[in-house]
Amino acid sequence: MFLINDTTLRDGEQAPYVAFNTKEKLDIAKKLFEAGADELEVGIPAMGQKEQDDLKEILALNLPIRIMSWNRATLNDLEASINCGLKAVDLSIPVSDILIDVKFGGDKDKLLRQLETVVLEAKKEGLFVCIGGEDSSRANLDFLKEIMSLGKSIGADRFRYCDTVGILTPQKTYKNIKELSSLKLLDIEMHTHNDFGMATANAISGFEAGAMSANTTVIGLGERAGNASFEQVLMSLTRLFGKNVDINSEKLKSLIQSVSLASNRRIDTNLPIIGEYIFAHESGIHVNGMMKSKSAYEPFTPNEVGLQRAFPIGKHSGTSTLLYHLQAMGINPDKKRLQELLPIVREIVTNRKKVLDSTELKELYLCSLDI
Ligand SMILES: CC(=O)SCCNC(=O)CCNC(=O)[C@H](O)C(C)(C)COP(=O)(O)OP(=O)(O)OC[C@H]1O[C@@H](n2cnc3c(N)ncnc32)[C@H](O)[C@@H]1OP(=O)(O)O
Ligand SMILES: O=C(O)CCC(=O)C(=O)O
Fold first, then answer.
1. Would the ipTM clear 0.90, i.e. be above it?
2. Which residues form the Pyruvate carboxyltransferase domain (predicted)?
3. Which range of residues forms the domain containing residue 341?
């Protein structure tokens, strides 16, 4: 069982120039649940009253999934979470030498003592505790093992392995997670960043190596280049690894639109899983194949993600595309004429940088009959 713990409402909102209001947060939380998220990380109580009020409203939705907050591993942050009524917390602690220097003046003993105190307090309150290993990918593996052993001995439930600055590769992820997961100390959660475009691949690689869950964000929103994307991880798990999620395409589409609007980020037309053009087949050979079998050039169907298939009439079209459009308008064209039309279509499209619509094609075809 591999869980998706979505952090659109925490790390996603940390993306520069992004700020969600309460209504947007509630809408996104509901839609994340409906689209298949197993758990949600929804905010940072230490930010103050407004954030705490929002968190309470999200909890009041009573979604039947785990709702978590993000906290520094401090008693004050923990207290703020407890006061909100949260039953699950991520307690974050730096684990790489560079961040231990920055945040704990290099004092690992102090760090371990503080972590122990705060985890024990959280467990005393009956909370589910995930230890967030900030900057795990730049940390010494032996130190991670020490943190995980300590975590296990004091009752923590999970360790979040964070690729905080996004420097992992799938191979390195696999090696590190395999080594840590084989110790069977704590369940491991992947938290991957996209600085080199590998966040989703690294999350999946962690899963293959024994991690039990991954943080995601819708449209990959998040710090700097963002996080592993919810829709990419969800679809990869269901389509490539057989995870049993009933993806509701309408819900996915509506979730993505909500996050795009609330974050003021547009969705690239070629964005995997959800980009508007990812089922637009222009190349002649592809269209020819698609006319014979719908799975010829598609890894999954557009309706699974609420998109539509298209066959634009463009520079790379072949006669199959022209035939498809003309037949749809009740014309049974002469194949030789279609061959003659191809260079004309290419020239028009290249000159004006815009594909032909089917009416223009019809006119072109009918004109060619008059010549
Ligand atoms: C990798 C990540 O994504 S971590 C999550 C980061 N997210 C955010 O920062 C978004 C929300 N943050 C905020 O609203 C504010 O930064 C607050 C409310 C949390 C804190 O604000 P301030 O009190 O003004 O502190 P400020 O942000 O300047 O500094 C953070 C402090 O937390 C300390 N700190 C950071 N991480 C940790 C940690 N995991 N455990 C303990 N202390 C920590 C820092 O060392 C610093 O302490 P210092 O003041 O003694 O130098
Ligand atoms: O410590 C955590 O739980 C996550 C922190 C984070 O967002 C990161 O390391 O990128």
1. yes
2. 2-253
3. 284-370
